[in-house]
Specification:
The chain is mainly α. It has a domain at about 10-45. It is built from one helix and no strands. The chain has one helix spanning about 10-55. The protein is flat, with a radius of gyration of 34 Å. The protein starts with 10 loop residues before the first helix and ends in a 30-residue tail after the last helix.
Amino acid sequence: MLFQATPPDTSAYMIAGYTVFFLIMAVYILSLLIRTRNLNQDKMTLNSLREESRSTASPPAPRKPRAKRAGAGRGRKVKKKVTTNR
């Protein structure tokens, strides 16, 4: 007698929830596809600009040799802490 009432039918809410979820996922995937396409177009544009600048640019001027600093090429010295045990 206590549990004879039937639970409410919530299948419409479940279908609505799945519909909203799949719509949001479809918009997200579409956004990723558009971003990927735009990124590839930007990459192609940058590559063509790089090639164009290489073909029209004059050769770079020769570099001057740099003076070496004192201690260049050596590792950094680490000071050791001296402790005494008493």
